[in-house]
Every structure is written in C-alpha cells, then in structure tokens.
Amino acid sequence: MLEKGKISSGEFLILVIIFTIGGSILNVPALLVTLVKQDAWISYFITTLISLCLVFLYNKLASIYPSKTYVEVNEKILGKWVGKISALLFLFYILYLLSALLYEIGSFSTTQILVGTPIEMIMVLFLLTSIIGVRLGLEVISRTASIFFPWIVFMLIMLFLLLIPEIKLEHIQPVFEDGMKPIIKGSYHILALPYVQLVFLLMIMPFVKEKDEMKKNFYRGTLLGGMVLFLVIIFSILVLGIDLTALQNYPSYRLGKRLNVGHFLERIEVIVAFIWILSVYFKLTICYYGLSLGLAQVLGLKNHKILHFPLAFIILAFSIITHPNTVHSHTFTFKAWTPFSLSICFLLPVLLLLIGILKKKRSNSKAVKGC
User: Fold this and answer.
1) Is residue 101 situated within a structural domain?
2) Cis bond leading into 206, ω under 30°?
3) How many degrees, rounded to 5, is the angle at CA 334 between CA 332 and CA 335?
C-alpha cells in the first residue's frame, strides 16, 4: 500500500468540514445571489439536503471495497484498462479543480491583499507550501487541520456575532418573489460548489480507522460545512443586500469591511481572509495528495513522492493556461462547471455502484453454489 498512515473518524470529520468550506466561502454567495436574488438562502438549503443523497451514494460505494481508494475501486469494478481510463478521467477532474483553486488563491491575493504582486509568485509560494504538507503525509495533514480548526470556528463565530447589528431584514424580502423555478435552477448550479466534489474523499476513506463512525461523520461534516456556507450566504444578503452581493467578486470578504464595533473595532476583513486561506490551503493540499496517490496507483508506482514536483509544474501551468483572467474563471464556473462535475463525480460513481453491487451478488451466489 502506498499510504501506511491512519487517521481517526474525528479527524476525517474536520477534513470534510474544511473541504466543504474551502474554495466556496468567498465566491458562492455572489454566484447564487446573481441567479436567485434574495431567495438564494432557500436554494442553498435545498442543495444541502440533496448533498446528503450524494454522501449516501459515496458511503455505499466505499462499503463495496472498504480498503481500496476510489482509483483502485475503478479498476476492481470495471477491469484493468477500462478502470484505468475511468480513474484518469477522475484524476483529470482533480487536476482541473487544483488549478482552479490555485488560480482563485492568486486572484484573491493580488486583487484584495497584495495588490500589484505578480499572480504567478503567489501561486508558486502557495504550491510550495502545499507540497510540504503532501510530502509529510495524510496523518500530518489531518492533525495540522485539527490544530487550526478551532481557530476557524472561533473566527466564524466572531464574524457572525459582530455582523448581527448590521442586519437589515428588508433585504431578504419578498420571499419566493419569482417562484420555485429560479430556486431550483440555483440549486442545480451550486451543486458542484462544493458537494459533488466530496467524491474525492473516497481517496482517503480507506485510511480512516473507525469505518462506521466515519460514515456518520461524512454526513455530519457535510451538514456542518453546509451550515457555515448557508450562514455566509444569508448574512451576505441581510447585510450587503442582493445588488451589492451580486456585484462583488468576494462578498463575504466585503462583510468583514462592514464590521464596526463602537468605532474602535473596524474593517476586520482579515478574519474572512484568514478563514478562507486556511480552508482553501487544506482543500488544495488534500486534493494534491489524492492526485499524486491516485496517479501512482494508476501507474503502478511503489512511492507517490516522486510525482510531487513534476505534478507541481503541471498544476501551475494548467492554472495559468485554463483561466487567463477572472472573467473567464467566473464564466466557466457559471456555465460549465456543474455539468462537468456531475458527469465525473455523480454519473460515474452511480455506474460504478450499480456494476459493483451486481458483481458482489454474482460472486456471492457462486460462493453459495460452490458450498
């Protein structure tokens, strides 16, 4: 086995929450409010409920071969060559997700914090930091996430409490102004940010020790992460209003600028930046780890560490080529990301689950006849 480390179900819960939040806390409110206006919170609530069905699917798929990663399950169910092709499609999706996350890090940093800094420098520094985590292994990544997680929770609680005086209830009215059609449309578009991406956690589920508790924590982590994003969306609407939320690239970052406690504690947007940078770092590192591990399994390598630096060059080049500017990135996310994600992260796992169940039943019936 390429990975010998083991993590607890509690650490897995934290990884699920961070994976759900990372990459979504900044841009999801603007995308959803653009589609659904003040009913965006209803749309996201529906999406969170749908996500539990996806988690059910992924848990079922993990139960067929509990000791194997998603890449190995592909080969086990579909056969060696078809399974490798299917696994490579999945790994390409992770590569694209990594490049999108890395570009988002560079774009946010150079437009909001380090204005004027070359975006390539930000991406290189972040990627190098991520490589350190990947090379140290899954146990170190998960335990480091456990150390920083209480700080993320504390910052979120502080942010929401301080924003309560800024709430204007008229911003959320009228409810159901345009009916259910735009709400359902918004739920569909936001499904890929981030819920269908949770299939990726099948790459680390074989290394979680308590399998039954792990499955329960998969549901809990998805709900808790969804709750955080739900609160970010509803606070963006209540505090900023739908027009300002839709116009901002990063409305949740703008929320931090609105904080004002007694004209003493003002503009603490660093809270939002800190939460986002931490969560997106761990999501990037987990994805990077899974990509190198999965590719090593497809290629039949004994150690995935030799792939870390070559993959870094590919990820960096891909992030620069695929998204030449922020407009292109947002347009792709709005129009193409959801169908692309559903085809790789939903339709393919459903196919694998159906074929895997049939194979299991057939092997069990043969075993019974043999007895």
Assistant:
1) yes
2) no
3) 70
Helical axes 119-136 vs 138-163, angle rounded to 10°: 130
Residue 48: give its domain's CATH number.
Answer: 1.20.1740.10
Whole-angstrom distance, CA of residue 289 vs CA of residue 297: 12
Query: Is 203 in contact with 72 (CB distance < 8 Å)?
Result: no
| 312 domain residue, yes or no | yes
Q: Please give the span between the terminal C-alpha atoms of the chain, in angstroms, as a whole number.
A: 32
The domain in which residue 102 lies consists of 9-329
Give tens-digit pLDDT for 122-180. 889 889 999 998 988 889 999 999 999 998 888 888 888 888 888 888 888 888 877 88
For 212, the token pair is 């039954």
Give the number of domains in the chain. Answer: 1
The amino acid at residue 166 is E
Listed in order, strand segments (DSSP E) in the chain are 260-261, 265-266
* CA distance readout (Å), 108 to 148, 213, 249, 272, 298: 21, 37, 9, 12, 34
Q: Do 247 and 33 contact (CB within 8 A), yes or no? A: no
360 falls within a domain: no
Cβ contacts of 263 within 8 Å, gap of 6 or more: none
Structural domain contains residue 238: yes
Q: What does each C-alpha distance from 156 to 20, 109, 276 come to in angstroms?
A: 15, 20, 10
* Residues contacting 230, CB < 8 A, separation 6+: 41, 44, 45, 48
Structure token pair of residue 24? 């979504």
**Burial (Cβ within 10 Å: 0-12, 13-18, ≥19) of residue 283:** buried
Q: What is the pLDDT of residues 250-293, one digit of tens each?
A: 787 777 777 666 666 666 677 777 888 888 889 999 999 999 99
Distance in angstroms (rounded) separating the CA atoms of residues 283 and 278 = 9
Q: What residues form DSSP beta bridges with 208?
A: 7
Q: Does residue 194 have a cis peptide bond before it, meaning omega lies within 30 degrees of 0?
A: yes
**pTM recorded for the entire structure:** 0.90
